[in-house]
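Sequence in, structure out. Go.
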Amino acid sequence: MDDLLDKLSALLGPGGVVTGGDMAPFAFDWRKIEESTPSAVLRPRSTAEVADVVRLCGQAGVPLVPQGGNTGLMGGTVAKPGALLLNLGRMDRIRDIDPLGYTVTAEAGCILANVQAAAAGVDRLFPLSLGAEGTCTIGGNLSTNAGGILTIRYGNARDLVLGLEVVLPDGRVWNGLRSLRKDNTGYDLKHLFMGAEGTLGIITAATCKLFPRPRQVETALVAVPDPAAAVDLLARLRGASSDALTAFELMPRFGIDGAKELLGRDVDPLAAPAPWYVLAELTAGTAGPALREQAEGALAAALEGGTVLDATFAESEEKRRQLWLIREGLPEIGRAVGGAVHHDVSVPVARVPDLITLAGKRLEKLLPGIRPYPFGHVADGNIHYNVARPRGMETKAYLDRAKEITATVHGTVRELGGSISAEHGIGSRKREEMAVAKDPVELDLMRAIKGLLDPRGIMNPGKVLP
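Output:
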C-alpha cells in the first residue's frame, strides 16, 4: 500500500492524498451506524487523474469507494480497511451551459445547489431538489438515482440526464456526454451507471436537461381525513390543472405536534387540527389567475365531497417558506425523538393508503404504543415510513427491535408490489435484502454485468449486490 500511495501522491499532487486525522471530514458515515476506515482519501482534479487512479488501483488490486458530498443514508460511501476513498469534490466545474438547447454539463463534484444556481443564472430551471442540495453533489445524485420533491413533474435523477462521462474499472474513459434528445443507436449505456452506486464505474461528468423557470407558483397546505383522501385529491389536482402539479407531500399530524413539542416551533396555520395534511405546489410558465382558480376549484369540489377538511394558500414567499418548513422539519423531528427506525419505500400510488394502514396495524401488534409517522412524496408512491419508539421505552431496547420493525414494513411493501428503496439506494445496509426483494433472474443479470465490467471487484465492493 505504501508504494501505491507514493505513486498516487506523485500523480495527484499537493492535497491529492489525505491520510491520518486529516481524513475525518471524508471518512465518516452520515448516520453514524458504520465506521469508515479507508487507508487514504484521494482527491483528483480531473477525469484524466481519476482514470490514472483507477488504473493504478486495479493493477494493485486495491478497492476504490467513490464519494460525492457524503450525504447518503445507506452506507454507500463507507470504506473498509484496505480500501481507498475517492472523493470527487475538487471536480466541481460547470463545463458548459446552453440555454437555447436547455442543457448543462457539470462535473461530478458540483454541489447540486450550484448547478441549480447556474441554471437560474441563464433563466432556466434544473429541477432536481432534495433536502441535502446544499452539500450533495451531482455525481452522487446520479450514482444513487436521487429523487426528491419534484419527481412527479420532472422525474428522478436518471430522467434528467442526456449523457455521461464515466471512468470504467479498467481505467478507460467512456465519453458519452451527448446533448442529443434523440439518439437511437443501440444500447442506452448511461442507465447502467445511474443507480449503480459506483459499483460499475465512476461518473465524472454529466450533461443534464434544463427546463423553463416557473413564472407562477401556488402553494397550499390542505387538511385531509386520511391518506385515501390525499390520493383522491392528487387525482383531482392533476386533472384540474392540466398536470401543473410539481410537488405533493403527505404529512401526518405528528409533524405539527412534534415541531411544537420537540423543536419549539408553532407551525400550525389552520384553525383546527387534522390527522393528515398535504403540501401541494403547482407551477406555470406564465403568470395570471388561471392556476390559482384551477387549484381553488379542485379544492372546493373536494371540500364539498368530504375529502378535504380545510386549506390555506401561501400569499407570499415568506408564507410559502413557512409551509415548506413543516415538511422539511419532519427529519429533524425524527432525530429529536431519538431512536426512530427509518424506511424509504415505494408502492403503486393507489396502494399508498393500504401501505400506511396495513403496516401501522402490524407494527402496533408487534410493539404496542409504537408511533409510525409515514410521510413523503405520495404523488410518486414514495413514502418515508419512519417509526418512533413508544413513549417511555428506552432507545436501546427499541433499536434492538429494529430488524423486526423493518421486516414488518418491508414485508408489507413487497406484498403490495413495492420497492424497499425508492430514492436512497441500497448501499451496504439493504444489500442482503436484495436477495428477496429482486427477481432471481434480475439478480443474475446484475451479477453478470458486474462481472463483465469489474471482474476484479475493485469498484465499491460490498455494496448493492447481495
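Check: The first helix runs from residue 2 to 12. The CA atoms of residues 339 and 395 lie 5 Å apart.
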